[in-house]
Specification:
Elements lengths: L1 H16 L7 H4 L19 E8 L7 E4 L5 E3 L5 E8 L4 E7 L8 E4 L5 E2 L3 E6 L9 E6 L14 E3 L6 E3 L10 H27 L2 H10 L2 H14 L2 H26 L2 H34 L1 H10 L1 H15 L8 H14 L3 H15 L5 H4 L1 E2 L6 E2 L3 E2 L1 H10 L3 E6 L2 E10 L12 E2 H8 L4 E4 L4 H9 L5 E5 L5 E6 H9 L10 E3 L4 E2 L12 E3 L5 H14 L10 H10 L1 E4 L16 E4 L7 E8 L1 E5 L4 E5 L3 E3 L1 H14 L6 H4 L13 E4 L3 E7 H15 L39 E3 L11
Parallel strand pairs: 3-11, 13-15, 18-19
Antiparallel strand pairs: 1-4, 2-3, 4-8, 5-6, 5-9, 7-8, 9-10, 12-20, 14-17, 15-16, 19-20, 21-22, 23-24, 24-31, 25-30, 26-29, 26-31, 27-28, 27-30, 29-32
């Protein structure tokens, strides 16, 4: 207090000496010569420090606090800015810091290093090493400003405690011991993972799914579902519980991590740990093992729901009121798509077949009659003018149909009645009754339906039992097909029901059934029973010279001869059925563009026409014209892999795409024609016969000693023939080879 009063009086005296303090009116205008020397006070002007302030950068702990003695406490070896306040500080040349006295200075800072220097303030930037004693300030004035009597080496020692600076590192104060705090952090990471996993695992299991598991799951799964279901029924409340606990735990992790480490380190470690170990890993596990994890932690979940009850219960009720109850269901379309997806992850064949039937039964509601009907051009029909004589009745019975549509006026679109085969039971073929008479007598119900009629509604009509066949009409009331109960059942079963009377075995691709009896064209396309040995010799040599698959290494000579004899056909339109003449054109299609084929054909006698619809080209082909060569190349590739004696069972599979092709042309026979037709099963039968024959001693055979025939130039334009055959695309599916013309003779 005394020093402060002394300083005050010195300051007042100095102001008066410099004329800055106003005097009394009586003495204000007194000339200096009139002043009494006794009234003047002389003081020495020297630099004086009255206070110190420490400044530090943001986001650092360079300055700690003030201690009880009001000394500034700073972090050791951390740069701070020291601000000195006082008077006549512009006279200072050096500022030094010491822990003892001015003679033992630790740091000397020249006025050239000052940040700021003025009469009342000096700013310097420095670091303080750690020390148990406080740092004190010493000032050295500029020698040029000193009085003659002053010592140039004299220094001003600032001995006020408020200007002292302590440099020490105080140990951080944590919420608890470090070991305990780290242990709690690890436990909190585990809780974060648990609540995050439960949020994903439990909420992914709907109450309906749990009930389904309780009824159809294994014994363990039923036990797990039974334990989880009561808690899962509290949907929104459970959701609020897991989310609230997860937020609380993650916040506690961040707080404790910040207490143990610095700000940036705490942010990075806490964020990475929560994302990786508290979110990604547990959710990826619980999304697949939610039933197991949820059942084993159900007690802990109940405790958490009890803890968060005051907050989770009202929020859950509000969500129930706003969003409705947590109910998950499937409509018909969603259930249908779910059934379709099941075979993709389940490899059980029986399950796939059962699901296929279920899918078919559900899909009929989305299909119309025109999707499954038999087109009118594939329907066997009778004219009202036809006579039921012995020949025609025999033909009808050979077809095998039980209900036959009847048309009039030679117009197949004008269907007027139905003829049941049972109606012919009491008729005498010798009476030659007209079809029209029989139909009028029985007068069976004839139902016409629109093409857009729903398939499910059509099934309901058939279930009444009044009729099981209906005529499908377009918008102009023209007959475009027929629909039967069998067609709908096939659509439900997702498979064709092929009985002894079916001609079309695939309503989608219009694939015809290959058979020898009761086929539509059985009258005009028959097997060629007798043929001369010389003709067989020419055919066999031609095949071996042009296709390696017929050579000795694949087919033994006797097997090849038998293969040729068993697969010769002739087309004779003079033998066409009388019933077919009313509605069929006089032609036979050997190949149809876009229809899958699994046979090789060689024209032997007569002629056929090959038409390419894409290029609008049509050719007349004659003897030794080969079609379907892609089949032979595919057979050769498959047989070569099996080395003749391996399993060739895959080639018998009717769905094997490696031994089939889709022609981009149509081959039609309109006149008398003889041809060789070799199918995949026929060739494989010959291949097996060859293996058997090779085990029998070889006997001389008179066939196959002619000179090999060679190919001539292909005359037709190149066309792509098949999709799945390994043969290059530029190869032809038929060839125009011209060997010496040898007529087929009979012996």
């Amino acid at each position: 207090m005394t020093s402060s009063l002394t300083l005050f009086f010195i300051f007042v005296s100095a102001l008066c000496a410099h004329g800055k303090l106003p005097l009394s009116p009586e003495t204000r205008f007194v000339h200096p010569n009139n002043i009494d020397p006794k009234d003047l006070v002389t003081i020495k002007v020297r630099a004086h420090v009255s206070g110190v302030r420490i400044e530090w950068p943001l986001h650092t702990n360079a300055f700690h606090s003030y201690d009880t003695a009001r000394m500034s406490v700073v972090e050791p070896d951390t740069e701070v800015k020291v601000v000195l306040f006082g008077f006549w500080l512009e006279r200072v040349q050096y500022v030094t810091f010491t822990v003892d006295n001015c003679l033992n200075s630790i740091q000397n800072i020249s006025h050239t290093e000052f940040i700021t220097q003025s009469e009342k303030i000096i700013e310097v930037r420095t670091k303080f090493a750690e020390s148990e004693d406080p740092y004190r300030i010493c000032l050295k004035e500029n020698p040029y400003l000193l009085h003659e009597t002053d010592d140039p080496d004299d220094m001003i020692f600032v001995d006020e405690m408020r200007s002292w600076i302590m440099s020490t590192s105080d140990p951080p104060v944590h919420y608890m011991p470090d070991e305990l705090e780290w242990f709690i952090i690890f436990c909190l990471f585990g809780l974060s993972a648990l609540f995050s996993g439960l949020n994903m695992g439990l909420m992914a299991l709907s109450p309906q799914e749990l009930e389904l598991i309780m009824k159809s799951g294994s014994e363990t799964e039923r036990r797990y579902a039974k334990a989880i279901l009561p808690v899962r029924r509290c949907g929104n409340r459970l959701l609020c519980t897991t989310l609230i606990m997860n937020v609380i735990v993650n916040s506690a992790i961040s707080i404790l991590m910040g207490d143990l480490t610095s700000g940036m380190i705490a942010f990075v470690v806490a964020s990475a740990g929560i994302v990786l170990f508290g979110e990604i890993v547990p959710q990826s596990v619980c999304i697949k093992k939610g039933l197991y994890v949820g059942a084993h932690t159900i007690g802990f979940t109940r405790v958490a729901m009890l803890i968060t009850f005051p907050l989770a219960y009202p929020i859950g009720k509000i969500l129930d009121w706003l969003l409705g109850e947590d109910l998950v269901g499937y409509d018909r379309r969603q259930l249908l798509e779910l059934l379709k997806l099941t075979p993709k992850w389940d490899t059980t064949q029986d399950l796939a077949e059962d699901l296929k039937i279920a899918v078919g039964a559900m899909e009929i509601a989305d299909k119309s009659v025109q999707d499954v009907m038999t087109p009118i051009e594939d329907v066997f029909m009778l004219s009202t003018n036809a006579v039921l004589n012995k020949k025609n009745v025999s033909e009808i019975l050979k077809r095998g149909y039980t209900r036959i549509p009847v048309y009039e006026d030679m117009d197949r679109n004008t269907i007027v009645s139905l003829l049941f085969v049972q109606d012919l039971a009491l008729l005498d073929p010798e009476d030659n009754f007209p079809v029209q008479t029989v139909c009028k007598y029985y007068n069976h119900v004839l139902r016409f339906v629109a093409a857009e009629t729903n398939l499910h509604n059509m099934l309901e009509e058939f279930k009444t039992g009044d009729y099981h066949l209906a005529i499908v009409q377009d918008d102009e009331e023209n007959a475009i097909g027929i629909i039967t109960l069998e067609d709908i059942v096939e659509e439900i079963l997702q498979a064709e029901i092929i009985d002894e009377s079916d001609t079309i075995i695939d309503n989608r691709y219009r694939q015809k059934r290959a058979r020898k009896v009761s086929r539509v064209d059985a009258g005009i396309d028959t097997e060629l029973k007798s043929i001369g040995v010389s003709a067989i010799t020419v055919i066999a040599n031609w095949l071996r010279s042009n296709f390696p698959v017929f050579q000795e290494q694949f087919l033994e000579t006797r097997a090849l001869v038998q293969l040729i004899k068993n697969n010769l056909h002739q087309v004779d339109f003079s033998r066409e059925s009388v019933l077919d003449r009313h509605h069929k054109h006089h032609h036979l299609d050997l190949y149809t563009q876009g229809v899958i084929s699994r046979r090789f054909i060689l024209i032997l006698e007569g002629a056929a026409s090959a038409e390419f619809a894409d290029s609008n080209m049509k050719f007349q082909v004659g003897p030794w014209e080969a079609f379907g060569t892609a089949i032979l190349h595919a057979i050769q590739g498959n047989v070569s892999v099996t080395k003749f004696k391996g399993s060739t069972r895959s080639l018998y599979n009717s769905h094997n795409e490696a031994v089939q092709f889709i022609p981009d042309f149509t081959v039609t026979v309109t006149t008398h024609c003889k041809y060789l037709q070799i199918t995949v099963p026929a060739f494989l039968a010959a291949l097996k016969a060859s293996n058997i024959v090779r085990d029998i001693p070889r006997l001389p055979h008179p066939i196959l000693h002619a000179a090999p025939l060679t190919r001539s130039k292909i005359s037709l334009e190149e066309h792509s023939i098949h999709k799945n055959s390994p043969e290059p695309q530029k190869k032809r599916a038929f060839s125009t080879i011209e060997p010496p013309v040898l007529p087929l003779t009979k012996e």
